[in-house]
Amino acid sequence: MQTDDAIADTTEAVLEPVSSWWLSGTPLEAEHQRLMRRRQIEIPWAQSGAAALAPEERQRLGETWTRRAAAEYLAVSTFSVLAIDLVAAAAPADVLSLCLRAGIDEVRHAELCLRMVEIYAGKRILPPPGMSSLPDDPKRPKLHQALANTMLVSCVSETYATTVLSATRDLTTDVCAQEVLTSIYSDEVMHARLGWSYLRYALDRGGDGAKAAAAAMVPIALRGVATVVERERPIGAVTDAVRGHGLMTPAEERQVFSACVREVLVPGFAALGIDCGTATDDYGAAWAEAA
Ligand SMILES: [Fe+2]
Ligand SMILES: [Fe+2]
User: Fold this and answer.
1) Which ligand is nearest to the CA of 183?
2) I need a labelling partner for 174 at 20 to 30 A (CA). Which of 101, 207, 266, 268 fits?
3) Residues that place a CB less than 5 A from ion ligand 1
4) Each residue's pLDDT tens digit, 193-215
């Protein structure tokens, strides 16, 4: 009876499911809503200005949010795999709980993206199945693997996510898109902090060997994100109206990544004593303007 009350209470008090078609249709839904509610801000779904867009603009945005949904869904598995590395390396409790929490955040991000696909494309899709894999070398010290994969996932990918989300939010005028981006952004900031904090902790304990493992990961992690930035985009022009709904051009994204490397990542790693090699040149003006 207590359980029923709890479920009734939850479903009543909680926001409507963000993308109801992605739920199981079982009583687990109530507990899920409780989890998702933690950092939830209310999204003004009804105020979306999607209806005023031209069909090809809606399609362009629908495709973009479809890709974003797939990326957020994959990020669920990324943090799950990273959590295994961190457990294996005897990471502290706060690092573990935040890493597992990040996976939950990514479920919510995927839900938000699916809802945006519905708004722009009128389709109730599901994320495509799949999982991300992280570099895995059983022969290396667990601490080295954990810190290297934390750099890849958190320090580089999530830090870049915060910079690109922040820049995208600045040009977004649609209130619904703005709130969705803000909601995701606020989580990604924590996902990045998790990595930088653990990196410092691990370097303090791992000495020169850990520093060398970190330095070896720098070019790999930067290339990983650069490959995503360089990727082909969905067909369709990024009109002013499309920009107002939260979309930059590929050329702008290159500039953001280049600035992120130069102004955030390289100084951040250098401050921890990690050699970044030619990173600033690799992603300097020539790369940024190659789009
Ligand atoms: Fe995310
Ligand atoms: Fe994230």
Assistant:
1) 1
2) 101
3) 72, 106, 109
4) 999 999 999 999 999 999 999 99
Cα of 136 vs centre of ligand 1, distance in Å, is 23
For residue 227, what pLDDT band results from cuts at 50, 70 and 90? Answer: very high
Q: What is the dihedral of CA 106, 77, 66, 21, to 10 degrees?
A: -70
For residue 229, pLDDT beyond 60 = yes
All domains in the chain, ordered by first residue? 53-127+139-288 (1.20.1260.10)
What is the rounded CA–CA span in Å between residue 289 and residue 253? 10
Q: Which ligand is nearest to the CA of 73?
A: 1
Give the 3-state secondary structure of 123-140: CCCCCCCCCCCCCCCCCC
Q: What's the gap in Å between 63 CA and the centre of ligand 2?
A: 20
pLDDT of 80 higher than 70: yes
User: Could you say which ligand is closest to the alpha carbon of residue 109?
Assistant: 1
Alpha carbon of 150 to ligand 2 centroid (Å): 12
| DSSP-assigned letters across all residues of 182-200 | HHHHHHHHHHHHHHHHHHH
Greatest CA separation found in the chain? 65
Of the listed ligands, the closest to the CA of 191 is 2
> What is the structure's pLDDT at 6?
52
